[in-house]
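Slide 14.
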Amino acid sequence: MSDTVQTPTAEPGGSGIKTLEVQIWRGGAEGAFETFSVPRRDNQTVLDVVTEVQRHHVPDLAYRFACRVGVCGSCAMTVNGTPRWTCRTHVGKVAGDGKLSIAPLRNLPVIRDLVTDMGEFFDKWTKAGGKFTGTRSRAEPMAEVDPTSRARRNADAGIECINCAVCYSACDVVSWDKDYLGPAALNRAWTLLNDSRHAAQNETLAAATAHGGCGSCHTQGSCMRACPVGISPTRSIAGIKRMSLLDFLGMRRS
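Slide 15: predicted structure.
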């Protein structure tokens, strides 16, 4: 597919800035920002800017992307200090002064440039009891779920998470407590605790309330504000805390 050359234009109704001053993180954890001048274009996304730098300035720039339409979440980066999906973040909304700072996601080891190691994120997802264990075999009829039940509605509220790690990057508790499982992992646990087909309910609750689990959450809500698809891990974590208390009091429904 050939590249289409666009003429740099001012943002409609904007500042008239025709170039962007872009700082991009280069190297590993001990790297540094490098500054580039990039043409500003109409309807330009932050991912477009990163691609422009890679194509015309530093061909070895490392970054991740796939769908470009806000489905996969692989293009998540820290933009002007805030974790975001770069494919859905328009320059006009975050760079009114013509300046952009683009860095890898916070709270994850940096492999190189804008690429982080997601290993610990997924390890915690598993540690929180995030593996589904069915109550029926493949030879049996599928279990029926009442879509109007309270438990199903609770699960539905958090089930659209695609593990982009934006909430994990936004979480200050993760920054100072590396044992904390994080909002995405605990949100996953909450969906399973509300899934009647999940056979390991007690095991998931035990994992989600153990050291580094829901009790470590300070309820700051950063994960909720940062989530690109509007999920509230804060609500999910509060639900686990409430379920844990009911279990302790012997009032939890099986």
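Speaker note: The chain has two domains: 19-116, 119-248.
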